[in-house]
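Good morning C.,

I know you're traveling, so I'll keep this short. The sequence:
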Amino acid sequence: MDKVEAREILGGEVTRLRAQSYAQLNALNGDSQHIDTAGPSGTEYQVEIQAWWDDRKQKNLRVMVSIDDGGLRAIVPLTESFIIAPDGSFVGE
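The C-alpha cells, ready to paste straight into the viewer:
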C-alpha cells in the first residue's frame, strides 16, 4: 500500500467529516460506513467510518476513519479519529 496516497485519501475523508454537524455525525453513532475508492495510482482502497460515544454522559462522539488496500495492511489499517462535542467543538484540540 502506498502510505502517502492512503494518508491523502484518509485526510480527505476526515476533513469532509469534520465539516459535518454534530447531528449529522451522531446519525452514524453505533454504525459503520464502507467506501471503496481508487487512488490516483489506481490502487483500490477500502475506507471505513465508525462513530461511537467517547463519553456517553457528556454525549461526546468519537469518529474514526480507517483505510487499507485489502492486503496485509487490512490487519492494521491506517486510522485517524476525532472527538466532537454536542456544541460542535472538537475535544482535545
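Safe travels,
E.
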